[in-house]
């Protein structure tokens, strides 16, 4: 159980359970959840019963499994419309995808990580981890680093404390000092790179999407593979990317976005 869930009481514990159920990616039995939970059995059962009665979890009596409930779908749809950058960015992302013919990712920060909120495939789609709705590590994805670099000091310190620094490849950044040095360079250039740090052969360049105040709204990347191109070639797309980022920021001025 996270220390934050403890601080937030019953609501925090319930949300943690929803996160745990969703993380399995498939319907699961109570004992599967129990084996991965620090809650006592009775507490876990009580909370799951409440979540089920409220429609936040769905229970299948035939298979005796739990899955995210329909009420979550409704809430997610409302959140997508009101808090996601995706609907606002759609015209710019569509145009950029058509102009470049490359894979475009749009992301927002979620507890220091990169939450992918939209994606446009290239004319030749690439098999990779990132899909809309998935969360990628902030420290070793181009779009994650682009956003982390422009956080204010307090927010950045908090976000860095949430990084796992797991070595996905032999090129992954595995320490906060190395990451801080790179974030400083990114802030100077306004552009970040993924040098096969999260997945082998996957490379990208990314830019932040910033409000006029400098607040980080999101980030955007152009992604390809080492079999098709190089980082230097991808970097040629930087002017179009920065232009699209400014367009999205301008369109976002009257919208309310969640804090990181």
Describe the structure.
The protein has 260 residues and is an alpha+beta fold. The protein folds into two domains: 3-74, Arc Repressor Mutant, subunit A; 84-251, GAF domain (Beta-Lactamase). Helices cover 45% and strands 19% of the residues. It has helices spanning 3-7, 9-24, 30-35, 41-53, 70-83, 86-100, 142-148, 153-160, 176-189, 231-235, 238-251; strands spanning 57-60, 65-68, 103-110, 113-120, 135-136, 192-195, 202-210, 216-225. The strands form two sheets. A six-stranded antiparallel sheet has the order 5-4-3-8-7-6, sandwiched between helices. A two-stranded antiparallel ribbon has the order 1-2. A hairpin with a 5-residue loop joins strand 7 and strand 8 (216-225). Helix 2 (9-24) crosses helix 4 and helix 6 runs antiparallel to helix 11. The longest helix is centred in the first third of the chain and has 16 residues, at 9-24. It is globular. The two termini are 21 Å apart.
Termini gap: 21 Å
Percentage beta strand? 15-25%
Radius of gyration: 20 Å
Q: Give the strand order of the largest sheet, numbering strands 1, 2, ... along the chain.
A: 5-4-3-8-7-6
What is the H/E string? HHHHEEHHEEEHHHEEEHH
Described by the principal axes of the CA atoms, the overall outline is globular
Topology (elements, then pairings):
Blueprint: H1 3-7, H2 9-24, H3 30-35, H4 41-53, E1 57-60, E2 65-68, H5 70-83, H6 86-100, E3 103-110, E4 113-120, E5 135-136, H7 142-148, H8 153-160, H9 176-189, E6 192-195, E7 202-210, E8 216-225, H10 231-235, H11 238-251
């Amino acid at each position: 159980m996270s220390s934050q869930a403890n601080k937030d009481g019953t609501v925090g514990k319930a949300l943690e359970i929803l996160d745990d159920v969703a993380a399995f990616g498939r319907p699961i039995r109570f004992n599967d959840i129990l084996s991965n939970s620090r809650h006592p059995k009775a507490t876990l059962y009580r909370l799951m019963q409440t979540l089920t009665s409220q429609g936040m979890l769905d229970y299948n009596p035939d298979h005796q499994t739990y899955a995210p409930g329909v009420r979550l779908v409704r809430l997610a749809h409302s959140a997508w419309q009101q808090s996601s950058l995706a609907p606002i960015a759609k015209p710019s992302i569509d145009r950029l995808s058509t102009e470049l013919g490359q894979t475009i990712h749009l992301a927002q920060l979620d507890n220091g990580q990169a939450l992918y909120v939209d994606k446009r495939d290239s004319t030749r789609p690439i098999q990779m981890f990132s899909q809309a709705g998935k969360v990628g590590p902030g420290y070793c994805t181009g779009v994650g680093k682009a956003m982390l670099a422009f956080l204010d000091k307090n927010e950045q310190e908090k976000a860095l404390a949430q990084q796992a620094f797991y070595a996905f490849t032999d090129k992954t950044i595995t320490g906060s000092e190395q990451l801080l040095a790179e974030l400083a360079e990114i802030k100077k250039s306004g552009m970040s790179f993924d040098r096969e740090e999260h997945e082998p052969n996957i490379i990208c360049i990314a830019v932040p999407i910033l409000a006029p105040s400098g607040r980080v709204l999101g980030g955007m990347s152009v992604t390809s593979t080492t079999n098709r191109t190089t980082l230097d070639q991808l970097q040629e797309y930087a002017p179009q990317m920065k232009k699209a980022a400014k367009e999205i920021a301008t369109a976002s001025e009257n919208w309310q976005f969640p804090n990181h």
